[in-house]
Specification:
Blueprint lengths: L1 E7 L10 H4 L3 E2 L2 E2 L9 H8 L3 E8 L8 H13 L9 E3 L9 H7 L5 E3 L2 E6 L7 H11 L7
Parallel strand pairs: 1-4, 4-5, 5-7
Antiparallel strand pairs: 2-3, 6-7
């Protein structure tokens, strides 16, 4: 089976700070301690097993809110690795729209671009009205070019 996965999360706690991983516990989702280890492209593809992932869109993973650009830059570096097959092909990045400096953050994000082995990656900046279909459309509409929607 071949799929396009419109909503994945990748994380690496040894190299990046995720407040929700730093203090795992029990929430409305239950105990999520079992998923707090490293989960990068290799783990994602291993989880997919025999399913062929044609494209994947990463949705921000509640990375350190003090440094939202770090997650996007890290994801772009993953997409450049030959073994990643270009994953993630699209990124729905985090941006606190209530932050007085959000314009600077949004201006900085679209400049991050890369080319993966099987395609290009795009950086998509969410707005208040962003939907999952908009995230998928970003990858298709922009041919992998960094953009906002």
């Amino acid at each position: 089976m071949q799929v396009v996965d419109p909503h994945i999360h990748l994380w690496n706690p040894p190299t990046h700070h995720y407040p929700w991983i730093a203090k795992p516990g029990r929430t409305f989702m239950g105990d999520y301690g079992a998923i707090t280890g490293k989960h990068e492209v290799s783990e994602f593809l291993a989880d997919a097993g025999e399913i062929e992932v044609l494209k994947a869109v990463h949705v921000e993973a509640a990375h350190d809110p003090a440094d939202p650009l770090a997650e996007t830059a890290w994801l772009q570096s993953l997409a450049r690795e030959p073994a990643s097959h270009g994953i993630p092909h699209g990124i729905v990045a985090a941006a606190n729209l209530a932050d007085p400096d959000v314009e600077s953050l949004l201006a900085a994000m679209p400049g991050i671009q890369t080319s993966g082995e099987s395609g290009r990656s795009s950086t998509c900046i969410p707005t208040r009205s962003t939907t999952m279909s908009a995230a998928i459309s970003c990858v298709n509409r922009n041919g992998g070019r960094a953009s906002s929607f």
